[in-house]
Amino acid sequence: MVDWLSLAVPLAYLGVLIGALATFSSLYRKRKSRKAASLEPWFPAHLQRDIYFSLMHLDPSTQQTEKKLPAVPESVLKASLLRRATEDIRRVLALRSQKQALSVLLQRGSVGDDLWQRFLRAEKEMEDEVKDVVAEANAYAPNWGQTIFQSANEMMNNDLYRKRMDDHQSKLAEERAFWDKKKASIQEGFMKELDTPEESGAAAAKAPEAAVTSTSAAPSVQSDEDAVLVEAESVNTPGSGGKKKKGKGKK
Q1: Which of 48, 125, 152, 242 would disulfide-bridge 86, Cβ 3.0–4.6 Å?
Q2: Where is this region: Disordered (predicted)?
Q3: CA-CA distance, 52 to 152, in Å (whole number)?
């Protein structure tokens, strides 16, 4: 016969232990969910999605009676959905570019777990957002969900090119002023180079004249000195005077 009294204590211990673990697990999940809900979102508010939902949930009867506006046409809704898909592409590309760097920082301990939880929550939200956009596109036209993101990507590239063109146009006046100033400085340098050879040519023309005058004056002085020296030698030479005296005595 089984002794239930001896088994009551272990069973009670197991029951208390399982109850405590269940309570702790429930409290931990609730605390974690509250903490995740209190975390700051990874991206700011999705304005394009809010605009699309606002257009979708407008009541046509309320529009016509109170605001006296026509119903929202389908083309406007499609354009709003395309804008929503364009913003989704931007956010998905941002998540893909940031995931690898964030995982490396998390492994090194440079960032906390809260930041990684924010990133995972943003990634899950974007997955649901993409699925919702595909479903909405297929509701407007069959198989449009397969090509809507391709059209949105072309729109995004067009917006980027237009923004770059606007930036270049805004810098056009500044660039023109810079190049005009540089052109003026280059022209001034050329004019200085043209003026410098004329001055050097005038100086070179004056230099030969000064050299000619100095050379012409120097030989005259040398010729006078040579004449004086020749006369002095002729007077002081004894041979010439003795020969003349002997000749006179013979005569």
Answers
A1: 152
A2: 195-251
A3: 15
CA angle in degrees (0–180, nearest 5) for 138-143-145: 55
User: Residues in the chain, how many?
Assistant: 251
Q: Are 81 and 152 in contact (CB under 8 A)?
A: no
Q: Rounded CA gap, 222 and 140, in Å? A: 117
Dihedral of the CA atoms 116, 117, 121, 122 (nearest 10)? -30
CA 59 – CA 62 distance, rounded (Å): 5
Query: Considering only CA atoms, which of 52, 50, 44, 60 is closest in space to residue 137?
Result: 52
Contact status, residue 61 vs residue 100, Cβ threshold 8 Å? no
Check if the beta carbon of residue 49 is closer than 8 Å to that of residue 84. yes
Residue whose entry in the numeric block shows the structure tokens 């500044």 = 174
Quick one: tokens of 188? Answer: 């001034």
Q: What is the pLDDT of residues 189-231, one digit of tens each?
A: 878 877 775 555 555 555 555 544 544 544 444 445 555 444 5
| Residue 98, C-beta contacts closer than 8 angstroms, at least 6 positions apart | 119
